[in-house]
Design goal:
The chain has 13 helices and 8 strands. It is α+β, with helices and mostly antiparallel strands and 293 residues long. It is globular.
Length: 293
């Protein structure tokens, strides 16, 4: 059968359009958190940029990494040793943080991270998490301030914290130092707050947020808008994202769309200290729209 076609009644072939990467991502975003497989969702984000990306191929690469790591973990004892062995394997495979060009968009695309073996904290964490979960290690993402981390509860008690960018297991003091570096005002580390497990849609929102900032800094409004759209697929009532998308729409002279997003943001965010400024922005856009003939 011709790829992308299926027989209709009477033997005639009908063209069946495949879902676009945006549509496939939307399907994932519409489901429950428990059904979201982070690596697959991240690859669909990348597929919007790489037209020929084969998501199944890169998922198979994660399977192969897990198969290669399995013998080394089998020689380890408890879960703590297994996590340490996987971090060592990750390092030996050449995965590392891109310290030379941190804001290269390729660092945010999982296919590129698997190809080049360099990335930023969140994408390296996604690789390590995907491999770990295939080996029975329940890694979870941690939206730590300034630097995405992983955590893994172990039967021996407690939680291990892993920095995939540094390829290291962190103790409490190391976490505190990272917190001190990320916050403008010193704050005592509270594991229940700072090291909580992030739900999958929050993780994907952070990944897209990184890309959004990169594209916005470059003045690439079309790609910035694409990131905003997908974040709002995940978090449709995120008032800050509605505000940001409104600003992108304004930059593209899409005033009606900007007004709609600002109206919704104002509705969702009644205690926002910038409420007067947002209302003024919306009213100005209404005036501009009304002036167009």
């Amino acid at each position: 059968m011709v790829d992308g076609l299926r027989p209709a009644r009477g033997g005639r072939l009908l063209d069946v359009a495949r879902p676009t990467p945006r549509e496939r991502f939307g399907e994932i975003a519409a489901g429950p958190d428990a059904a979201i497989e982070l690596a697959e969702a991240a690859l669909w984000i990348a597929a919007e940029e790489y037209a020929d990306l084969d998501v199944a191929e890169y998922l198979a690469r994660l399977d192969a990494l897990a198969d290669a790591a399995a013998p080394e973990l089998a020689q380890s004892g408890d879960a703590v040793e297994r996590v340490a062995a996987l971090v060592d394997f990750f390092r030996a495979q050449g995965f590392r943080g891109n310290t030379h060009d941190y804001y290269d968009p390729r660092n945010s695309f999982l296919n590129e991270v698997l190809e080049r073996r360099v990335g930023i904290p969140i994408t390296l964490a996604l690789v390590l998490q995907a491999v770990g979960r295939r080996l029975g290690l329940p890694f979870e993402g941690v939206s730590f301030p300034g630097h995405f981390l992983l955590r893994c509860a172990v039967p021996e008690g407690g939680v291990l914290v892993i920095d995939a960018f540094e390829r290291a297991i962190l103790d409490r003091d190391a976490c505190q130092r990272r917190l001190d570096a990320a916050l403008p005002v010193p704050e005592l580390l509270e594991p229940a707050v700072h090291l909580r497990a992030a739900p999958p849609r929050e993780v994907l929102g952070r990944l897209l947020g990184n890309l959004k900032r990169i594209y916005a800094d470059r003045g690439d409004l079309e790609r910035t808008l694409g990131c905003c759209d997908r974040i709002l697929m995940l978090l449709p009532d995120a008032a800050t994202e509605l505000r940001d998308r409104a600003l992108v729409y304004e930059g593209m002279s899409l005033h009606s769309a900007a007004i709609a997003d600002l109206d919704r943001a104002l509705e969702l965010w009644p205690d926002n200290p910038d409420l007067p400024a947002l209302r003024a922005k919306r009213d100005l856009l209404r005036a501009k729209r009304g002036a167009v003939h």
